[in-house]
Amino acid sequence: MAGTRYAARVEADDGTVDWRALNRANWDDRVPVHLASSFYDLAAFRAGADSLRPFEPAEAGDVTGKRLAHLQCHIGLDTLSWARRGALVSGPTGRRWNTFGACSSSMGSAR
Fold first, then answer.
1. How large is the angle between the packed helices 99-107 and 19-36, nearest 10 degrees?
2. Helix axis angle, 77-84 to 99-107, nearest 10°
3. Per-residue pLDDT for 100 more than 60?
4. What separation in angstroms does the CA of 98 have from each of 40, 53, 73, 75, 104?
5. CA atoms of 74 and 12, how far apart (whole Å)
6. Burial state string for 56-69 with b = 16 or more CB within 10 A and e = fewer than 16
7. 3-state secondary structure labels for all residues of the chain
8. Tell me: the pLDDT tens digits for 102-111?
9. What is the rounded distance in angstroms from the CA atom of residue 36 to the CA atom of residue 28?
10. Rounded mean pLDDT of 9-19?
């Protein structure tokens, strides 16, 4: 990854690239950009907008009271959208800091 600098170390001691660490670092470095982006429109989300694409709830149906694990939740908007629809949802990130926690705590209550 010549010329690319990540906050986390992405090379193993033998100089080979740790691809899992590289992927994690890549997503971690995107979080602040995505939180500030108009694409994610946090103001609208805080006001009650849903981040799910129309086909997602159409295919899932009523999720009220259902358990849902939303893998790779990134900044958590889709995970919180499922919770707003009544799902008992978890959004593990697998990252060195919990981006979902950072996003949800900055927004206050999901409902």
1. 20
2. 60
3. no
4. 18, 24, 10, 9, 10
5. 25
6. eeeeeeebeeeebe
7. CCCCCCCCCCECCCCCECHHHHHHHHHHHHHHHHHHCCCCCHHHHHCCCCCCCCHHHHHHCCCCCCEEECCCCCCCHHHHHHHHCCCEEECCCCCCCCHHHHHHHHHCCCC
8. 455 445 544 4
9. 14
10. 75
Q: What are the pLDDT digits (tens) for 34-47?
A: 888 888 888 899 99
Q: Which residue has the tokens 């992405």?
A: 10
Cα–Cα distance list, 35 to 16, 57, 90, 98 (Å): 31, 24, 20, 13
Residue whose tokens read 């950072």: 102
Task: Kindly give, in sequence order, each residue whose CB lies less than 8 Å from that of residue 50, ignoring residues fewer than 6 positions away.
Answer: 81, 84
Query: Which two structure tokens, joined as six digits, stand for 23?
Result: 């992927």
